[in-house]
Write a structure and sequence with these properties.
two-stranded antiparallel sheet; Barwin-like endoglucanases; alpha/beta; 51% helix; globular; 4 domains; 6-stranded mixed beta sheet
Length: 453
């Protein structure tokens, strides 16, 4: 057992020359805890050298372990553990989709890549000028280092483990960080200006842990239920459903899945794909499932681009909307609304008119509730309760544009929707107390034990 080093008395390296000439004694709770650790370590060293009794050695070893734990807890304050706008990150930028990437890659802006990995390139080349000038040799070395390195991407708030994802970085000529579609649901990115923080683990152990535990494969290995969250949805799922309307398209999807799929409604649904993917995950492992998911996304995006489906006043001209409800009462508008929703649900031709939108809901590309939301978008007259609790008729929608009166009439329902979203965000936190008893001393374990992490 090596002697424990004494507490340092030197000033910080970043102090100005005047401060260096007059060093001050470092004090505070972390230094006191450090001195306790040093004293216990020296005492234990003397007992080991003197062949002391085992019972006393065990007792002193336990005291030393507790002292080290206390010292590590005091090193990091609560403010250092907050993943918010003041977090210490290696880089940060707006996030954008990158479907051309591999699922374990992230597109990193060229400037950020040189800033993060430039010191590593300089260390391997031994030529600072080549790194500063970004020469061809330095660029090749940069790409080689990035190809074997992992970086961690985080988007606040960090309420679940999946908000920390590890990727191999790839240089791109862009100002935004590019994410593969598989990673977007886990980070809850909707590309409306969301920002992500980028962290670069600098130790070999940190690199290994990031790749093994924080990559998509690592998260899926830890929690197989995530396959439902990263399965195709929205445009990709609609493209697969539209493709499966034809027998040839269904065969293409079955070839990607490497197994037959049921289509009782005449098309493949998201639930069917999730069940098949869960079975493959249990029997074949993570890598084949991730490759299959990538192929499904690629095929779904290609199919929807080929379809040319769009919602507009022209493509929906075949659906007869009421001209005005000014002559109708509240009950008549309710009846008319229900009739139009039933008419919408009765659509079975998914290739024209509003059929593609109904296909999106029935296939699982959009939530079931969207079938009731569509009349709001299109402007079907409907009855709502305003801020005063009175029943009012809203005649316009997003298709025509809301009036000020319409906006105030829809405000209570919008507030309820925001409350529902807030409840969804609070739900994962309810599971966190079960982890608060963790006895490890890494950053996340200390954060979970903190009163205000």
């Amino acid at each position: 057992m090596a002697p424990f080093p004494a507490a340092p008395e030197l000033p910080p390296l970043w102090a100005d020359p005047q401060q260096r000439e007059a060093p001050t004694k470092l004090e505070g709770a972390p230094m006191a805890a450090y001195q306790t650790v040093a004293a216990l370590n020296s005492k234990l060293q003397r007992l080991v050298d003197g062949h002391g009794p085992q019972s006393l050695l065990d007792s002193l070893h336990g005291q030393l372990q507790n002292a080290v734990a206390e010292y590590l807890n005091e090193l990091v304050t609560v403010d250092d553990l907050r993943f918010d706008s003041r977090v210490c990150f290696s880089g940060r930028s707006v996030v954008a989709p990158g479907p051309q990437l591999h699922y374990d890659q992230v597109g990193l802006p060229n400037e950020m890549a040189w800033t993060l990995f430039g010191p590593l390139v300089q260390r391997e080349l031994g030529d600072a000028a080549a790194v500063a000038q970004q020469t061809e040799v330095a660029t090749h070395k940069l790409d080689a280092i990035m190809a074997r390195s992992w970086i961690i991407v985080n988007r606040a708030p960090s309420v679940t483990p999946e908000t920390m994802l590890a990727f191999h970085p790839v240089r791109i000529a862009d100002r935004a960080v590019r994410l593969h579609p598989l990673a977007c649901p886990l980070l809850n990115t909707d590309f409306d200006g969301d920002q992500v923080a980028v962290f670069l683990p600098i130790t070999a152990a940190g690199q290994r842990e990031a790749g093994a535990q924080l990559s998509l494969a690592g998260h899926l290995t830890r929690n197989p239920k995530l396959v439902e969250q990263i399965a195709p949805r929205q445009e990709a799922m609609w493209g697969l459903a539209w493709l499966s309307l034809e027998a040839e398209g269904l065969q293409q999807i079955e070839a990607i899945m490497d197994r037959p799929l049921s289509a009782p409604d005449g098309f493949v649904t998201r639930a069917t794909l999730v069940d098949a993917l869960a079975q493959r995950l249990a029997t074949e492992g993570v890598q084949p499932v991730l490759e299959t998911l990538t192929a499904l996304f690629t095929r779904g995006f290609a199919a929807i681009q080929k379809s040319g489906f769009a919602m507009s006043a022209f493509t929906e001209a075949g659906f007869a909307w009421p001209v005005s409800s000014s002559a109708l009462g509240v009950e008549q508008v309710k009846t008319q609304y229900d009739q139009y929703v039933e008419k919408l649900l009765a659509i079975t031709d998914y290739t024209r008119g509003l059929g593609p939108y109904v296909l999106a809901v029935r296939s699982g590309a959009l939530p079931d509730t969207r079938i009731r939301v569509f009349p709001h978008i299109a402007g079907l007259p409907r009855v709502r309760t305003d801020v005063n609790g009175q029943l009012v008729i809203v005649e316009r929608g997003f298709r025509q544009g809301l009036t000020l009166a319409d906006f105030y009439a829809l405000a209570p329902a919008a507030r309820e929707g925001l409350a529902y979203v807030s409840k969804q965000w609070d739900a994962p936190v309810q599971f966190e107390p079960s982890h608060n008893g963790s006895r490890s001393f890494h950053v996340l374990a200390r954060a979970r034990r903190a009163a205000h992490p």
